[in-house]
Every structure is written in structure tokens, then in C-alpha cells.
Amino acid sequence: MNSRPIAVFDSGLGGLTVVRALRQHLPHESIVYFGDTARVPYGTKSSPTILQFAEQDCRFLMRFGPKMVIVACNTASALALDELTQKFDLPLLGVVKPGASEAVRQAHGQSIAILATEATVASQAYPRAIHELAPRTPVTQQRCPSLVPLIEEGRSSDDPIMLMLLNEYLDGIRQLDPAVVLLGCTHYPLVAEAIARLMPQANVVDSADATARWAKQMLAQMEILSLSTDPGRLRCYVSDNPQRFREIGGRFLGQAIRDVTWITPEQFFTDDSSPPANPSPASFAPAARVA
To answer: Which of 31, 36, 119, 261 has the fewest CB atoms found within 10 Å of its own CB?
Structure first.
């Protein structure tokens, strides 16, 4: 059981920020990542569609015999995690509760602002999770529909268009004078530096890092941490456009992705429970410390 991989899925590239944090906190764990790039984004889909996609993603990852599945998509965590937990007999972890918990810890009873996709905001998952821990904490949410495509275009924290857009979104939460700005999308850590500059009075909380620390704690409590002293291995699978994933994904992971395996619809939807053919050895990038 200890040597089984951690499985991680997202609608596309954003979940690689969770993988990056996992490799910092759990460098000896192997990871299998699935990015559903053929159906990205999830943030604009209906709840039934998101649930269907998330269940299909989990079923695909079950072929690798994981010891844990991390739903590294805020939208799927918000809308599908409870039902996935009922359908799959293994530990599942989303990004909402860890992020909310860390936000509450750093807010010290003061207000929290959440930046997220339209579907995540509409789900009210973050306010619910925060108020379960701190019922009187003021919470506001801000939809940021244009951030994901701009981040995937490669626009950085110093890009004038990115800064202009962030300023516009942050204007919607400044009146609350939040103590914490919670990044409710796994793409947003790539512009966390800009958000911190534009909101200097607030702590910026990354749910990806909080999720990795929760995963480590859960595995330790279940006594299934990897016993290996070697760096863990990473395998990446996508449902479309592996070249784009390879080129852009390195920015999210913090290091180059040398190979990605494309899963065709026939492979993805097959009833065969065996894993797809393993990629070449070059795709198993050794874990590395990431600043």
C-alpha cells in the first residue's frame, strides 16, 4: 500500500500547482496526474456535467491503484467531492477545505476574500467551509472569469494587462479590507505575487500548498507514507493536446515536463481497468525541491 501512487486530477494545467506542492512536502511519493484538457474548463460547466466528468476522471485514475485521490480542481472539489467520496472506497481530498482552514488560521477572526471561477463562487463551497470553522468571519467572493485564459497565455505578474485585470477584480473586494485573500483556483498561484503587491495589507493563501500539507497529514495518520528514500516519480496523462500541456505545464510545476501521454477517447472510456501503456522513462521526472 505504501508504494502506491497519489493520484491527482484537474480539468487541465492548474492542478500542477498542487503537484508542485506535493513534491515539496512529499518528495518520496510517486504521483499520477490526469489533466482533462479535452474538456477544460470545468468552471463554466453545469453541476451535473462537472460531477460526470469528475467521476470519469476518478475511474480512469483507479487503473493505477492509487492510495489517495486528490481533486486538484476547485470547481470539482466544490461540486463533486461529496458524491465521489460515496462512490470510491479510498481516501479523497479536495482543495476547498484545506484552503478554507488555512485562510481561517491566518485571518485571526478578520475578514476573508476569495478569488475564484464562476462555478466555484456559485457553489458557495468556500464560504460554507470557512463558516463551519469560524461562523462570524466576514467573507466576500469575487468571480475572476478572465484570469485562467490569461495565465495560460503566459502572462505573468508583471504583465500590464494582467495587472489591469487584477486591479479591476480586486476593486470588488477592497471595501471589505480583508486580512486574507484566498486563491480559490489552482491557476492563481502563478499571479500570487501581483495579488500580494496590489493587496499589501492582506495575506495571500494558496490552497494548493495547504492541500499538500493536508495530504501529508492524512497519509501519516493512515500509516501509508512511502517508505522509499528515493525521489518519487511523476506520470502525466492528458485527454488532448499533450504538446501544449508539456510547453505550458512547466510554469505550473516549476520544472520542465519532459513527456506527457495522450489518452484517446477510446482509451479513456474503455471498460478495461488496466493502466494505459507506460510512457517512456523520460516522462518520470524525479522530484525536486522547488523554491
So the answer is: 261
